[in-house]
Amino acid sequence: LEPVIRNGGDKGPGYYSSNKDIDADAPLPDEFGGIMQATREIVDMIDKMDGLTPSSAARSCRDIKLQDHDASDGVYWIDPDWGSHGNAFQARCKFTLQETCINSTKSNKDEKFVYADEIQVKFLRLLSVSVYQRITYHCKNSMAFDGKQNSINLIGENEIFNMNSRSKYRPMIIQDDCKISDGVWHKTIFEVRTPQKELLPIIKVKPFDTGLDKEYRIEAGGVCFVW
């Protein structure tokens, strides 16, 4: 190295330069080569996230829309934890409403609703700003809400929603025909909408108006995560 004096004299700091030319074509050290390869693989993976197959599952419907602005509403494969695609699942993408919706996969004999893998749901919450879900109570001579104190309980992950809940946890009644007792099937529709994403989905519903000549069926609508 040879000292290079700036501004003359010996005042100020000394600057040094190397006589050895830098070879721009020299190969990168192994660790940098590995980083570049990993980066290329991630970019290739993102380019293939069209959600059309389990192996091309996207993290959410939002990622599919970012990848393809012309994507239309429908059912796609998603993988929110972005790990192995072995636990990828299908969701309904409502691009115009900016929603990723998942249905319950089955209702067990204890009337619990089951959704996607629990870890996947947790990651989907992280990718969203709010969540909502509708529950339909099909009824014959069985009320869903008596207009006063009693209503069915919508049991979520960390909260119980009913018509006596505080306003921010109180379900909205979209339709209420179960107040009609005429021996004919009717229905009442509740909607829970909240920015507290950890409170949904609804996993169980507990009726209150049961007994002789009273029948009911419960339908869990898709839980929709808004992005």
Automatic annotation (TrEMBL):
The keyword rRNA-binding does not apply. This is Collagen alpha-2(I) chain. GO terms for molecular function: extracellular matrix structural constituent. GO terms for cellular component: collagen trimer; extracellular region. Coiled coil: none annotated. Keywords: Collagen, Secreted. It is found in: Secreted. SMART domains: COLFI. Gene3D superfamilies: 2.60.120.1000. It comes from Paramuricea clavata. The keyword Cell cycle does not apply. PROSITE patterns: NC1_FIB. It holds the Pfam family COLFI. Its main location: secreted. InterPro entries: Fib_collagen_C.
